[in-house]
């Protein structure tokens, strides 16, 4: 009976066994490639430090930390593969996922969406979800979540410490003071740019701008009123000057003043026309 069970294993057992075995082989290949890349990056950092290129070594340390993150993530997946291989017989006996391998099953299902370098994770996800249903989010390994979904860029202190460790490993006397000063200048410059960019959205600055705009509008209104008043004053002055200073009206007023009213009619003054004396004689003759 045992020989029969060994020869005719269920599909779940076969698929899990083959997927975990192929996955371990693939992870080993990826590990060797990543380790070679880490050695290459370390030698680059050493060459940069020897040539005084501290900032280039600092930037290369970020790439090195990313490679180390991937290796540690693959190590966690390999541990879960070993857990699944050891508990396959227990998983065959129960319809529900056993407590001993619940974290491993949930973490491998979760990692299928975040680790594209290992296609066997998708096969394991299909097998586990068909047998046990959807995974429990609370059972996923937190370190794996932190290294995949919640990963962030390494901090400045971590990158400087990485460069220090490499310099110490290769017996290089390196002082990070110049690099720290350069990074502080860059951060201060970025902060100033952010303040300038965010200043357009600052309510205080907008309030000041509105006050200045209101003042300019008031000044424009006052200037318009002043110009209007000045124009009206000019028009009044011009009209008054035109009314009092026109030559025709002056001559008419002079004529009215020079005319004398006599009991027998109006006699124009003698100095108005050259023939005024002859007209007076003609009028006297007519009256006689």
Automatic annotation (TrEMBL):
<protein>
    <recommendedName>
        <fullName>IST1-like protein</fullName>
    </recommendedName>
</protein>
<feature type="compositionally biased region" description="Low complexity">
    <location>
        <begin position="233"/>
        <end position="246"/>
    </location>
</feature>
<feature type="compositionally biased region" description="Basic and acidic residues">
    <location>
        <begin position="278"/>
        <end position="288"/>
    </location>
</feature>
<comment type="similarity">
    <text>Belongs to the IST1 family.</text>
</comment>
<dbReference type="Pfam" id="PF03398">
    <property type="entry name" value="Ist1"/>
</dbReference>
<dbReference type="InterPro" id="IPR005061">
    <property type="entry name" value="Ist1"/>
</dbReference>
<feature type="compositionally biased region" description="Basic and acidic residues">
    <location>
        <begin position="195"/>
        <end position="211"/>
    </location>
</feature>
<dbReference type="InterPro" id="IPR042277">
    <property type="entry name" value="IST1-like"/>
</dbReference>
<feature type="region of interest" description="Disordered">
    <location>
        <begin position="195"/>
        <end position="288"/>
    </location>
</feature>
